[in-house]
Amino acid sequence: MKPNISLLILGLLAIKLIFLPTEYTGDSYGYACEIIKGKWISGHHLLHKYGVGSIWKILQIIGIHSDPLQVGVILNAFFGAFSLMVLNGILKSKKYPSTSRWNWILFTASCFVFVRYSSENETYIFPIFFALLGWHQQLRGNPWISMLSYLIAVGSHQTYLIVCAPLIWNPSLGQTENNNPIKFSLRSLIQRMDFNFKGIRRAIIFLFLVLGGYGIAAYFYELTFVNLFFQDVQSGLVQTTPGFKNLIFAVINTLRIFVQLHGELSYQILHTWPIWLGFIALIIYLIVQIIQFKKNSQKDSNPECDSAINTNFDPIPSISIGPVFSLIFTWLFALYSVGNLEFMVFIPFLIALISSEFSHKNLQSFPIENHHSKHNSNSESNLKSNFTSNSNWDSNSVRTKKIISFFT
Question: Residue 318 — left, alpha, or beta (φ > 0 → left; ψ -120 to 50 → alpha)?
Fold first, then answer.
């Protein structure tokens, strides 16, 4: 029986809507107050308050009385679910089986950073949805639709300029001279890299569109471009001189991407029974996954032989590494911002996107080659001899493929 991923996402959304927070962050209250007061101008998140505020105004007009705080929280819950749906679509396009997609959706939705900010009136969930939508459309060959989605993501939160530009650039790793897919030396990576100059041009166009959008907004707000674009810096809300605490908080908050670390946890663990239920459910889930993994591994009685007689000598597929650069730049910017956890919300999704480049389809197309004879081994007997003679590959590649396949 295949797991129903749509039902999983709807269940997670229902839990968020049923158990709405009773307390919120200071920023959540601040954004709500600014919407009520009509102070919708913000260089850091140009479109966010316009989106939440407009929906709040519409609800007021049609007689549904609410406040911007509630509207923002509910919208974030829905856009969090939409983001998971788009992620599922991306993984599905990469030929991920439903069980693997279920695991990745559950992993991403369970990360502390996503649980927290999809339950607040914060500004970090909207851009995730539009950035994922942009990547999805980019993979489907719709560059200008994806460009529009990326622009909305940056308009929702300014820091997504750093997130989206590498995705638009999207360099890739291709075939090496010796055709070895598992090789990570710096020289090999440079040899394999396709710098995608068309992507560079699109990234430059994207940058000019963002700057032009801020220029138009500054004109209508009767502000200078610099005052609008660097509003938080000029307001003293951003520390511009890095120090040792940047590294300390970056390391701590990198761990907090996945699980909360706080002194209050000791009390909660001892006095809050749902946490114990969560631990028990997690242990049961991991046991079931390990058992399932062992069963799947045992189905293939001799994977080495199966791999050796594979006559499909397709070239190594191109592996997109735009998400890798996006992950690196995102974390470095969070490091510069004193390890700000808020700028790491997209990282679980980026990890999933990176894993999607190692899908089953890609792994199965990895060729097995003989370093002494690259072009004259098309028969089954030659393939078998190649496999047995290549000790480096036959001892490591199958093991590597098994380890990666557990996560894909």
Answer: beta
User: Based on the number of CB atoms within 10 Å of its own CB, is 267 exposed (0-12), middle (13-18) or buried (19 or more)?
Assistant: exposed
Phi, then psi, of 357 in degrees rounded to 5: -75, -10
Burial 320-338 (b: 16+ CB within 10 A, else e): bbbbbbbbebbbebbbbbb
Residue 118 CA to residue 121 CA, distance in Å, equals 8
User: Which of 406, 310, 318 lies closest to 367 in space, CA to CA?
Assistant: 310
Three state DSSP letters for 315-327: CCCCEECHHHHHH
Kindly state the average pLDDT of the residues 360-380. 43
Extended beta strands in 119-244, E state: 172-173, 193-194
* Phi and psi torsions of 307, nearest 5°: -70, -35
Q: Are strands 193-194 and 319-320 parallel, antiparallel or unpaired?
A: unpaired
Contacts of 314 (CB under 8 A, 6+ apart): 365, 367
CA 179 to CA 393: how far, in whole Å?
Answer: 11
What number of other Cβ atoms are within 10 A of residue 381's Cβ? Answer: 9
Structure tokens at 65: 């009385």
Q: Which helix (H) or strand (E) holds 120?
A: none
Candidates 208, 134, 144, 130; CA nearest to 167 is 134
Distance CA 17, CA 77 (A): 7
Distance CA 228, CA 161 (A): 15
Q: Which amino acid is at 233?
A: V
Asked if residue 153 has pLDDT above 80, the reply is yes
Q: Say how far apart CA 376 and CA 312 lie, in whole Å.
A: 14
- Could you tell me what percent of the chain has a pLDDT over 70? 73
Claim: this prediction has a pTM higher than 0.70: yes
**Helix spans in 157-310 (H):** 160-169, 186-192, 197-221, 225-229, 231-234, 244-256, 265-271, 273-298, 303-308
Cα angle 141, 142, 148 (rounded to 5 degrees) comes to 145
For 195-219, give one letter per residue: b (16+ CB within 10 A) or e. Answer: ebeebeebbeebeeebeeebeebbe
- C-alpha to C-alpha distance for 116 and 122, rounded to whole angstroms: 10
Give Cα 338 distance to the centre of its chain.
21
